[in-house]
């Protein structure tokens, strides 16, 4: 849904440019957020698989991944 921005004393062309600019920025930000989320999910799966392959972790042992910002912390009882 496009927002309607009512800017007093600004012509229609400028108003349209402002609305389109805002919409494009929102779309780009949403795409970036989706990409970051996908990368985090992929990293969690990879880390979980890697930890599960360690010989000192029993088969079927639950590994919790705590992702804080761009740092993944692995919690496992070894």
Key attributes of the depicted protein:
1 helix; 2 strands; alpha+beta; 13% strand; 53% helix; 78 residues; single chain
Explain what this protein looks like in three dimensions.
The chain is α+β, with helices and mostly antiparallel strands and 78 residues long. The chain has one domain. The protein has one helix at residues 12-52; strands spanning 64-68, 71-75. Strands 1-2 form a two-stranded antiparallel ribbon. A hairpin with a 2-residue loop joins strand 1 and strand 2 (71-75). The model has no long low-confidence stretch (mean pLDDT 68).
Total strand segments: 2
- Structural class, judged by helices and strands? alpha+beta
Number of helices in the DSSP assignment? 1
Main beta sheet: 2 strands, antiparallel
Strand content: 5-15%
Rg from Cα: 23 Å
Rounded mean pLDDT is 68
How many domains is the backbone divided into? 1
Gist?
With 78 residues, the chain is of the alpha+beta class. Helix content is 53%, strand content 13%.
Annotate the secondary structure layout:
Blueprint: H1 12-52, E1 64-68, E2 71-75
Antiparallel strand pairs: 1-2
């Amino acid at each position: 849904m496009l927002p309607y921005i009512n800017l007093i004393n600004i012509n229609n062309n400028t108003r349209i440019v402002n609305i389109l600019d805002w919409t494009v920025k929102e779309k780009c930000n949403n795409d970036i957020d989706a990409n970051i989320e996908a990368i985090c999910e992929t990293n969690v799966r990879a880390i979980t698989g890697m930890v599960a392959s360690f010989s000192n972790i029993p088969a079927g042992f639950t590994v919790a991944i705590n992702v804080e910002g761009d740092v993944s912390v692995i919690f496992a009882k070894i």
